[in-house]
Amino acid sequence: MDSAVTADAANTAEHPPRAKGHVYLVIAVAAIGGLLFGYDTGIAGGAAGFVAEQYRLSGFMEGVVVSAVLVGGAVGALLCGPIADRRGRRPTIIASGLVFALGALM
C-alpha cells in the first residue's frame, strides 16, 4: 500500500495539475478589479481640487472626501469576507458588481 501512495506522490510531483481556462479568467478579472480600484483612488485625488472649489471645502474637508474612498474600500473588504462565507463567493461578487454598477449609473 505504501508503494501506491509513493507512486501517486511521485506522479503528482512530475506532472502537476494544469489550471483550467476559467482560472486564468478569474485571475484576469481580479487583476482588472484591483487596477480599477487604484484608478478610482487616483481619480478621486485628481478631482479633489475641482470638488473643493465647487463646494468651497476647506483643506481638511477635501481630505475627508478623498479618504472616504479608502474608508469605503476598507469597510467593504472587512464586511464582504464574512458575507461570502455565509452566502457564497459567487452571489457576493454578483451583488458587489451590481452595487458598483448602480453607483456608476448615479
UniProtKB/TrEMBL annotation:
The chain crosses the membrane at residues 21-39, 59-80. It is a multi-pass membrane protein. Residues 26-106 form the Major facilitator superfamily (MFS) profile domain. It is found in: Cell membrane. Its main location: membrane. GO terms for cellular component: plasma membrane. The keyword Zinc does not apply. The keyword Membrane applies. One of its GO terms (biological process) is D-glucose transmembrane transport. Keywords: Membrane, Sugar transport, Transmembrane, Transmembrane helix, Transport. InterPro entries: MFS_dom, MFS_sugar_transport-like, MFS_Sugar_Transporter, MFS_trans_sf. GO terms for molecular function: transmembrane transporter activity. Belongs to the major facilitator superfamily. Sugar transporter (TC 2.A.1.1) family. This is Sugar transport protein. It comes from Murinocardiopsis flavida.
